[in-house]
């Protein structure tokens, strides 16, 4: 059998593949989608949805057992030191049921809600972030989630009990030359009777080094009886022809079992195909709609730990006659950590509860939670390192060796950095969310800017667009945000006034929609190339979503718990900080250096500034920028390491 050639894909073809994988319809309401359209639908998130009592009871019972296990059985410093999660820890988590948190009880799992699953990930991730990555890669994007959504009855009965108790799963999409552009996927699955023959190389296979089961994305060639396209398969990790060629090492997450996996003539039964041929990317993207919430869970847990350390350290450390927390330069950092951590938990819990209720379409909310959580948690950790000073840069082992508390602040900074890249980098998330945010515009005016459409198609699109904008644009002129007494329930006596912040969100949502429309009118078909502008649009939406979530959560805590007044204070401070960021982003929509940046980039690429690179030594080793991924037999030893 000849080796498959690497697909040659044009930019337009790549976009078509990505577009075809999107969920095209909006069958349920979406708070974030409405927000980008200038409609502040507070009714979609307030009153804050709550879990059922039985879900709370089951979730809290599991969290208690998990906390005890984390405190007594997990040595996070050992994992960091040895760059490996001990087998006994993994087996202990299996016995506890942690690998089946999201799997239904009828398949041997615990059946936690998304809310409590995320609480569990936040908890175990603070013991050691690699543990959170192990569990989330297994359940959020590994075998359980795509089978839950798209698997057959037989597949669920075969694989889910294994995933719940004994087997570890991994998700294999990325390749050495394929990242966020899956149209160039080179791994193939060639039909052969009642099986497929898989050939190719997969990179950054989280859990792949220790996995028992794999979700593999491969391209099925089009042929008679086969529609072809990128397709998802469940593959046994010990199948003949599978070789884990390398266990990758990273800046952080040193216990992460992430590798390079080669497939050479691997036979996979057709019964293991998930969904029809050609639906693999849609399955992957749909899985990620809620799967992405695992990352903001880890980020929220990190924020809580940072707040604890900042409080304890800045109270104990004195400079110039008083604790450093009492100095404004440090105090402002502590305020940012506290307020932002409150907002991160608000965004996470709101998005998770909406996922559990399944009343709303949360594809944008989950993406915003991932984007916002990963960016803000990184800033929180960076501020903690700054507050700790030289001790923040020093390793926990070094601190302990000289008799001080082993605080792994620098480790957290390293561990959190990947979250801005994992499961869609910040730049890709900007584009993904922006595409959903302008979906309504493209639905009515897309044909107007499509160069391949006929004049009659454009005329029809123009008529449709005229009708849509005639109804939509007038609604962006005025709204409840201009009414001084709107949202009165968010200004109870004796509490900060959160209603003013919600009015700001409403006004800003309409302004955001107007800015998006102006950009569409100005750039039309070139809008998709204005990635700087689109990124700022998305960042504004993320801040407005976080402000909304923070206010709604504060009101929930005021009416249901004893910390309502403190919650209102945190929400108020967060919203004031967020409003400053929003105003800056609005200013930068039109006042920026995007055009000049493109010119500089051109100069860098054509060598105009190579003189600026003189006077340094490049310590990089030899070798290609991208490793050879030509299909064929393995040339390396198999480092696959099943947990014993």
UniProtKB/TrEMBL annotation:
Residues 1-23 are annotated as: Disordered. InterPro entries: Acyl-CoA_dehydrogenase (IPR050741), Acyl-CoA_Oxase/DH_mid-dom (IPR006091), Acyl-CoA_Oxase/DH_mid-dom_sf (IPR046373), AcylCo_DH-like_C (IPR036250), AcylCo_DH/oxidase_C (IPR009075), AcylCoA_DH/ox_N (IPR013786), AcylCoA_DH/ox_N_sf (IPR037069), AcylCoA_DH/oxidase_NM_dom_sf (IPR009100). The keyword Flavoprotein applies. Residues 278-436 form the Acyl-CoA dehydrogenase/oxidase C-terminal domain. Keywords: FAD, Flavoprotein, Oxidoreductase. Residues 8-23 have a biased composition (Basic and acidic residues). The keyword Oxidoreductase applies. Residues 170-266 form the Acyl-CoA oxidase/dehydrogenase middle domain. Residues 60-165 form the Acyl-CoA dehydrogenase/oxidase N-terminal domain. It comes from the Bacteria. Its cofactor is FAD. Belongs to the acyl-CoA dehydrogenase family. This is Acyl-CoA dehydrogenase family protein. It comes from Streptomyces sannanensis.
